[in-house]
Fold this protein.
Amino acid sequence: MKTKIKIETIKKIIPLAIVLLLILGSFILGAKSNFYKDTPIKIINGTDEELNTVDLEPLWKTWKILDKKFVKEKIEGEEEITIQDKVWGIIQGLTNAFGDPYTIFLPPTESEMFESDIEGNFEGVGMEIGTKDNSLIVIAPLKDTPAERAGMQPKDKILEIDGKSTKNMDTSNAVKLIRGEKGTEVVLLIEREGESEPLEISIIRDVIDIPTIETEVKEGSELKNGVFIIRLYSFTSVSPNLFREALRKFIQNGTTDKLIIDLRGNPGGYLEAATDMASWFLPIGEIVVTEDYGGREPNKIHRSKGYDIFNDNLKMAILVNGGSASASEILAGALSEYGKAILIGTKTFGKGSVQELIKITPETSLKVTVARWLTPKGNSFSHDGIDPDVEVEITEDDFEYIKDGGDPQLDKAIETLNAM
């Protein structure tokens, strides 16, 4: 009798298990772009030792109990949970189990949003968010966006979105709640360093066009022949050409040998863009950044293309803060370690990992961390970020000065370059 029960149970489990394995092992194809690399086809099959020994019965038992007992709150306009939603939930739970905030499964809606981000324009509030120490964190508000105008700052911890707690919420679900049509409102409850109580910030959504670059020449007797400033807001596919044009303007200006690259609030972007920009200051073949695959495959080294057009007379500073992440940290880390630039500001965000985007189905994607970035000297910045050479914190005493157009960190950069 006991044997018969086991056989019937197995018969019930096998079809469902096959379905799950087919879902998880569908042809996993790489999404080709300037940021993500191609991925070979992989098929999960019955010869995998780990999958053959795993006990899936608790999964199906939980599924059945939820189907039988769960009572959902009835909210007008909210759709019922479908079988497909449950499958997406299983995969999201699987990715969450790895404990990496950048490894996430993107169901159809979230996958579509992510693709619109890559294209460079969308409707929302205009800020990069991530997770750190199990909290939802603002990496940086983008320039001239509703988020920046509303006063959002790097390292703001988002506690609630329209009254909904963000505890245990991943970034894809947070983005889904924050995004919305132009003209609509989203209210964020945030925790900010230095504030005794949480702050409630209301933001009106708008069309977001991701900015790239600006240049400025500051002149005057106190500047000793002036200083040229390049403000870089993102690393997109067009950034290398725009950066080259900015450097051309700097050279043609001819009145100064002092250059400031402002990476504050720059959440990053294309790795290739950072490598190309570093190449203007480094000899050919010098390491810009290394992708460390943890032994799963050989490390990949990204080297300077060797444009290297500046001599030792160049005086350069790079401004960084808690909103400088990813490609910003690659560029800043490389130019700092080779002694080409002085870093001024505050510690960077610490987003030093490589994500690969893989299509699971035509409508869904998996973004998975496949490697860690290391600076030319082999230092990881994936959690602790990069410390500036000259730390300049923004204090409450600086706020009035900043409101009047002042910039203590930029002032320090100019002072430092003048003293060289």
